[in-house]
């Protein structure tokens, strides 16, 4: 049986469920959401390096590839490759690229670790945002090591790595206080086909966090959808030690991308080289 993290995003962003108008509005919204990443890259990498326009970029767990298209639109990269496990998301990303008239982004529907000779490697910039590393590490005992070795090997010596992580320390405390399982309900706005979601959060023996979500359909609460992620929590010290172990020398932390309201509490960004 596949690990839950490998199949979790299958069928997410199914292109067929969007009308033309919904699709275009959604893509525009997603591109706009990337302005915080773009400004971060301009401020923290472009300022330190004057040849960013020629950057060869790789995104791991690229989802719908919005960030790669936003980087292309802003003329910050010369090529981009996105690895994404979910076939529905890669299909969506390809349609997204047609919409933005992209010329330099390639979406690859496979686990990045299986690509031994990535196109355009070594890269100037490797990005894994929105807890991607935390989804990769729990897959098996050596995934964390393989992922960090792959990244170091495929990054230029003076290239940059950007990670977005979530320490989850509040949740760890809440799980302990609630004797091993913390539950919380969420409700969604009227336009959403799902009305409520019950999150059940617990810990595995090795410290990884099991995050189960059960969604209840609006007006039909017996219609449900289930989603499981297993997340490895990383404190700043833990990730700093790991990155040093795998060859990174300069590691900087940021508590948000651009303004303090653009990140969830306990999320942080790592810039390493
Ligand atoms: C939380 S989502 C983030 C998506 C995107 N980075 C964003 O910011 O919207 C994590 C994504 O990583 C993908 N993923 C997880 N493990 C992967 C792997 N080993 N190779 C490629 N993609 C992976 C998942 O399929 C999922 O779409």
Keywords:
9 helices, Rossmann fold, 273 residues, 2 domains, binds S-adenosylmethionine, alpha/beta, 7-stranded mixed beta sheet
The fold-level CATH name of the largest domain is Rossmann fold
CATH architecture descriptor name of the largest domain: 3-Layer(aba) Sandwich
Q: Would you list the SSEs in sequence order as H and E?
A: HHHEHEHEEHHEHEEEEHEE
**Widest β-sheet, arrangement of strands:** 3-2-1-4-5-11-10
Q: What is the count of β-strands?
A: 11
Description:
This protein is of the alpha/beta class and about 270 residues long. It has two domains: about 5-165 and about 235-270, Vaccinia Virus protein VP39 (Rossmann fold), CATH 3.40.50; about 170-230. The chain is about 30% helix and about 30% strand. The chain has helices at about 5, 20-35, 35-45, 65-75, 85-100, 130-135, 145-155, 170-175, 235-245; strands at about 55-60, 75-85, 105-110, 125-130, 155-165, 180-185, 195-205, 210-215, 220-230, 250-255, 265-270. The strands form two sheets. The chain has a seven-stranded mixed sheet with strand order 3-2-1-4-5-11-10, with helices on both faces. It has a four-stranded antiparallel sheet with strand order 6-7-8-9. Bound molecules: S-adenosylmethionine. S-adenosylmethionine binds near residues 83, 84, 85, 129 and 135.
